[in-house]
Amino acid sequence: MKLAHLTIVALLAMFASAPISAQQAPAPAAAPPAPIPGPTLAQALKAMELARAAADKINVKLSCVVVDSRGDLVAVSRMDGARYFTTDVARGKALTSATFGRPSAEMIQFGSTPMFQNFNTAAQGRLYPIQGALPIQKNNQTIGAMGCSGASSQQDEDAVRAALSAF
Amino acid sequence: MMHTSLVLRALRGGAVALLATVALASPAAAQSVPTLSLQDALTLIDAAQKDASAKNFRLSFAVVDQRGDVIAIARMPGAGAATPDTAVGKAMLSAIYGQPSAALIARQTNPVTQSMNDASGGRFRFLQGALPIVRGGFTVGAIAASGATSQQDEDAVRAALSAVNLK
Predict the structure, then answer these.
(1) Which listed residue, A47, A131, B110, B157, has the most CB atoms within 10 A of its CB?
(2) What is the mean pLDDT of residues A141-156?
């Protein structure tokens, strides 16, 4: 009983002294890097417009989705005549691209690995590792991604590329 | 399962019968059933966003078609990450029933509604904040907001519907 008491007192003393030593050698606090703001809604809506123009040129109907760096939705648009599920596919591609900071086309091989399955389980099965989404990057940081769906994957990606200037 | 499909079939049969009645009753509507375009959706979202900005709210908006499929989504800067999906869930519910989502909250425990929710992947949200979009006597879709109190969400949507003349 007494031993336990002593131990506690000793431990308390140790912890109590810790802040003092910390004060003696203050580590210079590095300022955290300023977060780069993600794609704004205005930029996303402008990008959608550019993607729709690109789709009109080759007469295809697309859904496009812009997400932020966390993969959360910023904007969605489904062109008249685009199939109902294309919004989900475009979102899944954009989510894939934002999560890994790379074009979703580069994730196709990775898509069949157990590692990817783990990611997909965590994302509630919403990842689509197929071509058609590109990351939105500023100062070498991924601030979001944009994905399209509705035509061939190459055409989907081309529409995204035509829209990236909005960011 | 058998029970569910029978109920859904009965509902669908009812809807078809209803459509036929309306079409027969009014010769003008017999020519074509009105729909909701992406342009309509973006105009509505723009109006809703203006109303929310004026009140200093940060909301997400979703417009879905009469089937509950997404046409457009927009998340205002600062709106919560989950708000777009909440808005979609409210809008789906409102579009499928052709009623304000606020009037459908009590249906959450109704077995038929639960079957329909299962069929939609459990995406319904039984919350105030969505209103049906009616054109020429037909429900062509719904618009929902999410991010403030549910009454404030609905107010923004109502403001948008009264600001935009959908003919």
Answers:
(1) B157
(2) 96
d(CA B18, CA A67) in angstroms, rounded, equals 40
CA A74 to chain B, closest CA, distance in angstroms equals 5
* Range A24-35 average pLDDT: 68
Per DSSP, the three-state class of B159 is helix
Judgement on whether residues B1 and B17 belong to the same structural domain of the protein: yes
B54 and B132 both lie in a single domain = yes
A76 lies within 8 A of chain B by CB:
yes
pLDDT in tens, B22-36: 444 555 545 688 999
Position A157, amino acid = E
Which pair of tokens denotes residue A66? 């812009």
Q: The pTM is what?
A: 0.76
Q: Could you tell me if A64 lies within 8 Å of chain B, comparing CB atoms?
A: no
User: What's the pLDDT tens digit per position in B137-164?
Assistant: 999 999 999 999 999 999 999 999 999 9
B74 with B129, same domain? yes
- Nearest chain A Cα to B49, which residue? A41
Rounded CA-CA distance A75/A49 in Å is 12
